[in-house]
Specification:
Blueprint (H helix, E strand, L loop, with lengths): L2 H41 L8 H4 L7 H8 L12 E5 L3 E6 L4 E11 L5 E5 L5 E8 L2 E4 L6 E2 L3 E2 L5 E10 L2 E9 L5 E9 L11 E11 L5 H6 L2 E6 L4 E5 L5 E14 L3 E7 L4 E9 L6 E12 L5 E12 L2 H5 L19 H17 L5 H15 L1 H28 L3 H15 L7 H20 L19 E9 L3 E5 H16 L9 H13 L1 H4 L4 H25 L2 H13 L6 H23 L1
Antiparallel strand pairs: 1-2, 2-3, 3-4, 5-6, 5-12, 7-9, 8-9, 9-10, 10-11, 11-19, 12-18, 13-14, 13-15, 15-16, 15-17, 16-19, 17-18, 20-21
Helix pairs in contact: 6-7, 6-10, 7-14, 8-9, 8-15, 9-15, 10-14, 11-12, 11-14
Amino acid sequence: MDRNSVIGFILLGVLLVGYIVFNQKQEVTARREKARQDSIANLNKPKIFTDTSAQGTASKPDSAQLAGEYGEYAAAAIGTEQNTVLENKLVKIIFTNKGGQPASIQLKEFKASDGSPLMLAQGSFSRLALQLPVSNHNLNTADLYFTPGQVQQAGGGGQSITYRLSKSPSEYLEYVYTLNPDSYLVDYTIHAVGLEKVLPANQSTLQLQWNNENHLQEHDMQNERLNNQVHYRYTTHKHDYFTLERTSHEKLEGNLQWISVKQQFFNTTLITKTTPFAGADVNTKVPVSGNIVGQAYTSLDIPFNRAHDFSFPMQIYYGPNHYKTLKSFDIGLENIIPLGSGIFAFVKYVNKWVIIPTFNFLSGFIGNYGVIIILLTLFIRLLIAPFTYQSYVSQAKMKVLKPELDELRAKHGDDQQAFGMEQMKLFKSAGVNPLGGCLPAVLQLPILVAMYSFFPSSIELRQESFLWAKDLSTYDSILNLPFNVPFYGNHVSLFTLLMTATSLVLAFYNRGMADQSNPVMKYMPYIFPVMLLGVFNRLAAGLTFYYFLSNVISISLQWVLQTFVINHEKIHARIQENKKKPVTKSKWAERLEDMQKRQQEMQKPQGKKK
């Protein structure tokens, strides 16, 4: 066996050992993650003790078993579940005495994508409960039966209900809920009397367990999961978030003003009123199958001052991600709407100060959102019209100079430095700014990116139809494919095809402006729209309709201006007149030319040596 064979076998062995080690680490990580998820699931699994007099099927546990599990709260371990409804014209909340918590939340003005009622919470997974120490373990109040009070009329026309868990007449825990009229807000107060007696002497916080299970509400599961996030804001006004699909655990340290579980168009948020949360621990899970978008298990630390009569007031927001509504709370909650992030974070100000006010103004008297998008597009193009005109004039000048530039390129061949110097002299003598056509593109970029953020997150477009698009907030599929096309998808979006086609027409119309000697610059305007076809195929129809309409306006404007407004002969005559004028060089231009000359002189001896 020669040396090369030995080296080959050694490398194969190293690769095999590396693969085995890597695979073992992956398995260990997977086992740890499964153990973590199972532990969390077991912690939040509802107890199965029931009242046999009501159900008639479950076996009743003995008193010793109840005492061991529930301690002094054993009497509340068994009961009959009773529901109470609080509602206004926006929200319907069904409360249950088991846990004294919301059992389901329905937003009455919205529907899920399949036409069913839109539920923000339902089922046994959703929990809002305190953890109480009992017999060397924590007891979740969601497993205990509270005594419900009567529905009361609160101040301002709201409805209120109180659930009490009594240990004795002078020691009890109360949850008080008040649904405000014509509002998505619920006032929620934890009231405890004598609770300090059952807590360890060194315990200064109460643990509030808050579980959320988000079900699919829109057409696209993938897009829903990308938008299933946990947002939070500290009392320092710092806002941050993470996506459930990418982060399985997050420890939030510091004083929290609010924490929100967000979906694409709706959210559930816990908001403190006086005292902030002392921290939070969030565990998440994204099921691999089924209709569940994501699950969040959140433990919130409530500061406990060990007062005999303790209250912690807060609010719960169950509602839409509507910018104006969230902004009205004046706590920065509107920042959960993705209006611009990353390197394009600045475009959120374009959305906040220009796009959203204009959109809201138009929607105030126009009911068709397709028409609103058309008017919004015209408004934006009118806003940048002066710069657009200057861009077309600059393009016309460059078109007039193209024959002379081609001569210079042929004259200097591969000597790009010499060609660059002669090109600058030509531009200077003709009075042409080669960057004149870039300004409108630079101005349009923030608007294009702002629209990319605005349309997919605008709840106003949700389930609004226009032409063949049934829902402007999602893709306008005209054909569902029985298979998935790589880098494209399993459906055909017509607005995306029209956007791509008009982008290619626009590129063809401007083909004379590209550097024909550079293959990349020559063909990129045609390749780029096709490359983006798969990206935009699954985006909101409102967005692709806007881009398509903007392309149509650009093509029409160019044709009108180039055909009827811009006189190429006059521009050519003016350029020739400018060439006759003495050229005054700026200091910057003189320094640039001197530098280029020195570089040329330095290259000459090197050429001789060769």
